[in-house]
Structures are given as structure tokens and as C-alpha cells.
Write a structure and sequence with these properties.
Layout lengths: L1 E6 L3 H11 L4 E6 L2 H10 L6 E5 L7 H9 L6 E5 L4 H9 L4 E4 L4 H15 L14 E4 L2 E4 L4 E4 L2 E2 L4 H12 L4 E3 H9 L9 H13 L2 E2 L2 E2 L1 E4 L3 E4 L11
Parallel strand pairs: 1-2, 1-3, 3-4, 4-5
Antiparallel strand pairs: 6-7, 7-8, 8-9, 10-14, 11-12, 13-14
Length: 242
């Protein structure tokens, strides 16, 4: 049994969601106000496996709730919105949401997203599944420590979201080789990409901005159209003879 906290002001929607999730072995708690939802999320953080958070809420909007949750706890968050604005999804994911769904949606899609998030965030006591053994990887000016989950660029630590770190680790481990979209989705998102699903693009766009698009005149993360992505190997220095 998994325990979910739903923060959404639409009471009818919450009831329908609860009726659908219970047979799927999810125990659902419901809150209909942003401030109360934040208070519940923080006070009982250890009780919830995941938070489903609506963007538009009375008292405090979903972005504010997400920001304050992320400053205190690591409980996974799936955000919901009735808006089709791409910027809402970009901002939510950049602020640390684990995934984003636009209303209306198929309830089975919601369950699939929830299960995918739980699979990738429930691996052992530290909740951080590793793609391989803990090690320090250095590519150009980027240093990634898979054990401590710390990334430095030009010696400065980067604040990456959970998903951004996993994308970067997978790409860096395969530096110089193409990693397909399907491989990234399965390994990092824990699910297949659905039609018109732009979540991978948003995560990678944010990652590119934080790293800086280029190093040594070469694009760090290159899109291979129709296939996937490639983290570029930096050029080797040329040693001049005496």
C-alpha cells in the first residue's frame, strides 16, 4: 500500500480520483487549500510516498507550495494543471516537480506516472537509485559524484533536481555515444514517453541552462534528431613537441 497526499481544491475531482486510486492499492488523503496542504505535507512528510499537487489553489498557489516543500523535504511531487501553457510545465519541473500532467487526463495515465515516480524514488534507505556503482566522473569541466550526488561545473556546485541529476549521469557515462530517448525515459523517468509528452525536453533544457550550453566551443548536450541525445567528449589538448 502506498500513501498519497492530494492537494486540489476541486472536491468532486478529488473524490473521483480517490475512488479510482483505492482499488490500485493507494491510500489517499485530501486537502483543498494550498496553505493547509503545505502544512500537512511538512508535518507528516514521512507518512506520504508521493504528493499530487494542483497548480491553482486558494490561499497559496501550487508553485509556492512546491517551492516550500522542496526547501524542507524530498517527498516526490506530481503536479497537475488545467493550463496548456508550456511555461507552467517548465517552471514546475525546474522547481523540482518530479512530473507534470495536464487536465483532463486518463486516470490510468495518472496511475502510470505515479507508479513510475515511486519506482525511481524508492530504492533503498537513501531513496537515490544509482545507475552504476558510486564513483567520481569527470568530463571536461564537469565533475559528477554518483555517491554523494554532487555535481560541480568549473569547480562550482550545481543545484540540480533529482531527475536532472539522473539524466546527466546517464549521458555522461555514455559520453561520446548517443543515448536514445527511449533509453533515457525508461531508465530515468521509469516509463515510456506518451504522445506529446515534453517532460524530457523540459528537464534537458533546464539541465543545459544550468551547465552552460557549450564548453570549449562544443555543444555539451547535442540533440540527435529522431534518435536521442549525446554528451560531447571535450577535445583532447594537443601536445606540442620540444
Amino acid at each position: 500500500m502506498h500513501f498519497l497526499l492530494v492537494i486540489d481544491d476541486d472536491t468532486v475531482f478529488c473524490e473521483l480520483l480517490t475512488d479510482f486510486l483505492k482499488p490500485e492499492e493507494f491510500e489517499v488523503s485530501r486537502v483543498h487549500d494550498g496553505e493547509e496542504g503545505l502544512e500537512r505535507a511538512l508535518a507528516r512528510a514521512g507518512e506520504y510516498d508521493l504528493i499530487i499537487l494542483d497548480l491553482v489553489l486558494p490561499g497559496m498557489n501550487g508553485f509556492e507550495v512546491l517551492q516550500r516543500i522542496r526547501s524542507r523535504v524530498e517527498t516526490p511531487v506530481l503536479m497537475l494543471t488545467g493550463s496548456h501553457e508550456e511555461m507552467d510545465r517548465v517552471l514546475g519541473l525546474e522547481m523540482g516537480a518530479d512530473d507534470f500532467l495536464t487536465k483532463p487526463f486518463n486516470p490510468r495515465e495518472l496511475v502510470a506516472r505515479v507508479r513510475a515516480i515511486l519506482r525511481r524514488t524508492k530504492h533503498g534507505p537513501d531513496k537515490h537509485p544509482r545507475l552504476s556503482g558510486a564513483e567520481r566522473i569527470v568530463i571536461g569541466d564537469v565533475e559528477l559524484d554518483s555517491g554523494s550526488r554532487v555535481v560541480r561545473c568549473s569547480g562550482k556546485p550545481l543545484e540540480l533536481t533529482y531527475v536532472e541529476f539522473n539524466f546527466l549521469e546517464m549521458l555522461i557515462r555514455a559520453a561520446g555515444q548517443v543515448v536514445t530517448r527511449d533509453q533515457l525515459a525508461e531508465k530515468v523517468l521509469g516509463r515510456a514517453l506518451s504522445p506529446y509528452d515534453h517532460s524530457m525536453y523540459v528537464h534537458l533544457s533546464s539541465l543545459r541552462k544550468k551547465l552552460g550550453h557549450e564548453f570549449g566551443g562544443i555543444q555539451r548536450i547535442r540533440t540527435v534528431r529522431g534518435v536521442g541525445y549525446l554528451y560531447a567528449q571535450p577535445p583532447q589538448p594537443i601536445e606540442m613537441g620540444q
